[in-house]
Amino acid sequence: MFSSFLTRALCQNSAPTTPDTQHEVPIQMGLVKSLVAGRTIAAASATAGKTEEGDSCTFGSPHYFALCGMGGILSCGITHTAIVPLDLVKCRIQVDPDKYRNVFHGFKVTLKEDGFRGLAKGWAPTFFGYSMQGLCKFGLYEVFKVFYTDLIGDENAFLFRTSLYLVASASAEFFADIALSPMEAAKVKIQTTPGYANTLRVAMPKMYAEEGVYSFYKSLVPLWMRQIPYTMMKFACFERTVELLYKFVVPKPRSECSKSEQLVVTFAAGYIAGVFCAIVSHPADTVVSKLNQEKGSTALEAARKLGMAGLWKGLMPRIVMIGTLTALQWFIYDAFKVAMRMPRPPPPEMPESLKKRLQAEGKL
Fold it and tell me: What are the start and end residues of each Solcar repeat (predicted)?
């Protein structure tokens, strides 16, 4: 079963050899055809695995997916660690709104009690946790996008591409949160429980001694509730926003834009997606913060204690944080692809087979 999944995900079938060549030629399939119509990604002749001129790898190859995962490590690990001070204040507003009334007051109280070093609390679990999450989120998103496209076919992949983005991103985030959960639990414990621990190496053994492995995964379900909708919005909104920007805003096709111009579009689309991400995932984010603060509590109990108004505490700082975060993540991810000379498909185009069918039916 697993080998079948990999075969589909890599979008490669074996072609029979001929007397003229002893090399197998990978057949362009699935997402390679439907969302990258008109562009030859894999070699059509000569040596198997040969890339386009200037590309460092073949689209859909293990090398390609590995680089996507590396780009995810950089984009998520760097950005989440950079905004630890804002994240710390946001978490404290969520779990103790009486003490931390708003963002500015939260920073003021934190600086008074802990000094500037206090603003960096939780940086280590943030860096390691979100690096692992980024590896799974971006790497598996690319894998699942190709896998599901191969399952539903070229034409359906184009017609229902928004649904494709949503399902692929949700599948990737399911596994990404399993990797993130232990570090997220430690981060919130460090940031919201005064005197509990100041470092990761102190917090994790202490958490394990109190509640065992459960302490690292007790917030996994609310984490899924927060992260899966967030990631679905992050990827689907970004993909469609990029498509719309090139169609209605950018005065020339993406192929004619310089690398810097493409990265500007990436940043703008990422910020727009980030705003929607923050709104969709905020209530679950508040529950995660409250749950990891209190020992022995459940997600439902935490939500009841917070109430409807409490679930939306800290929304504005999170919109600023997530908007900026998402924009920077897509910027770093895309910049990494440029730097590594990875194949970067243009916006989706209608497959020729679908065009002909719609023309025959008089719908195009």
Answer: 63-147, 160-244, 261-339
Confidence grade of residue 162 (pLDDT, cut at 50, 70, 90): very high
| Spatial contact of 58 and 80, defined as CB atoms under 8 Å apart | no
Q: What are phi and psi of 17, to 5 degrees?
A: -80, 160
pLDDT at 163: 95
Lowest mean pLDDT among 21-30, 151-160, 235-244, 248-257: 21-30
Instruction: Tell me whether residue 212 is exposed, middle or buried, using C-beta atoms within 10 angstroms of its C-beta: 0 to 12, 13 to 18, 19 or more.
Output: exposed
Q: Which residue has the higher pLDDT, 342 or 31?
A: 342
Interacting residues of 245 by C-beta distance below 8 A, sequence separation 6+: 265, 268, 269
Burial of 17 (0-12, 13-18, 19+ CB in 10 A): exposed
Q: For tokens 């790898």, name the residue.
A: 57
DSSP states along 262-307: HHHHHHHHHHHHHHHHHHHHHHHHHHHHHHHHSTT--HHHHHHHHH
Residue type, 205: P
Of 29, 55, 1, residue with least CA distance to 145? 29
d(CA 357, CA 338): 36
Secondary structure of residue 153 in the 3-state scheme: coil
Q: Which of 77, 128, 65 is nearest to 328 (CA)?
A: 77
How much is the pLDDT for 331? Answer: 95
Q: Distance (Å, rounded) from C-alpha 197 to C-alpha 342?
A: 42
pLDDT band at 303 (very low <50, low <70, confident <90, very high): confident
Q: Tell me: pLDDT of 104 over 60.
A: yes
Fold of 65-360: Mitochondrial carrier fold (1.50.40)
293's tokens: 């603060």
Residue 205 and residue 189: Cα distance in Å, rounded? 12
Can you give the pLDDT at residue 298? 77
What are the Cα distances from residue 234, in Å, to 72, 226, 325, 327? Answer: 14, 12, 11, 10
